[in-house]
Amino acid sequence: MRPGEQLKELRSRLGITTREVEEYSRTIAEDRQNEEFYISNAWLTQLENKNSIPSIYKLYSLSVIYRTKFNDLLGVFGIDLNATSRYQLSLPLQHTHLAAFETTDPQKSITFPVRFDKSFNLESTSLLSRMVEVWGEIPVGLIEKLDVRRCQYGYIGTHDYTMYPLLRPGSFVQIESHSIRFQTTDWRTEYDRPIYFIELRDGYACSWCEIRGAQLTLVPHPLSGCSIRQFAYPSEAEIVGQVTGVAMRLVAAEQKADELPRLPRRS
Fold first, then answer.
1. What are the φ/ψ torsions at residue 17 (nearest 5 degrees)?
2. For 215-253, what is each residue's pLDDT tens digit?
C-alpha cells in the first residue's frame, strides 16, 4: 500500500477521525509551542489520499496519536534506521573518529550462538558454524549490556596509519573512558604499552602518548612512517580513554604486494 493508505489504516484501526487527529495534534503543538506539530483535517486527508511526505514534526504527532513507534512510521516512507550501522560500515571515513553503535529497537532480535558443540576442539582453528550446535534469537537489547554502557568505541580512519601495523586502518577499538589512569611506565613491549584515544580540536587520534607538563605528545608506531605530533594539554588535546580491545581486518595471505596500501612517507 501507499504510505498514505497505511496511515489511514492505522487511524481506522484506532477508530479515530481526521477531526480528532486535528484536535490531538493541536494539543501537542501548543505544548511544544510549535505549529509544525499541528495537523489540520484537510492536510491529513491529502496525506492519506496522495503521495506526499510529512515533516518530522507532523510525523512525530502521528506516531504519538496512532500509538506507533516513530521509527516504524519512518519505515512506512522507506526509511530504515536499522540499516544505519550497515551504511556506516560500508562508507568508511578517512579520519579517525568515535563510533556510536545503537539499536533503534531493543526488542528486536539477532541470530546468536546459544549452545556449542561439546565435541568441538577449541584448540584448533575452524569455522564458527561448526562450533555452534544451536543458533537462537537474542534480543538486541541484551547485546547492549555487553560493556557498551561502560565503554566507548572508536574507528581508525582508512588513511590513519599512526599505529600501523599494530592497529590497521579501518579497525574498531574499544575505549575504556572511566577512571582514566595515564601510564608512563610499567610496560615491557609495544603490546603492553597503553594506547589512548585522543580528541583534538579538528578530529581524533589513536596513539601512544607522553605527557610532559602542559604538553601531550602523540607517539606513532616506529614502522608507521608517521611523525610525532605535539599539542598543548588539555587545551588542544584531551584523552577520551584507553584502548582496551580491537576488531581488525587482516590482509589476506594471497594479496599481492602491489595491492597493499602505501604508507605515508616520514616527513
1. -95, 165
2. 999 999 999 999 999 999 999 999 999 999 888 877 643
Set of cell numbers at residue 200: 583534538
Find the radius of gyration of the CA atoms of the chain.
Answer: 26
15, three cell numbers: 477508530
Residue extents of the structural domains in the chain: 3-76, 84-102+144-267, 103-143
> pTM for this one?
0.57
CATH assignment of 84-102+144-267?
Answer: 2.10.109.10
CATH topology match: 3-76 vs 84-102+144-267? no
Per residue in 100-152, pLDDT (tens digit) is 766 556 556 555 555 666 665 545 434 455 555 555 555 555 445 445 556 78
Asked whether 172 and 246 are in contact (CB, 8 A), the reply is yes
Amino acid at position 258, single letter: D
CB-based contacts of 191, cutoff 8 Å, min separation 6? 166
CATH topology of domain 3-76: 434 Repressor (Amino-terminal Domain) (1.10.260)
Residue 102 in contact with residue 70, Cβ under 8 Å?
A: no
Ramachandran area for residue 204 (φ above 0: left; ψ -120 to 50: alpha; else beta):
beta
Instruction: Tell me how far apart the 2 most distant CA atoms of the chain are, in Å.
Output: 73
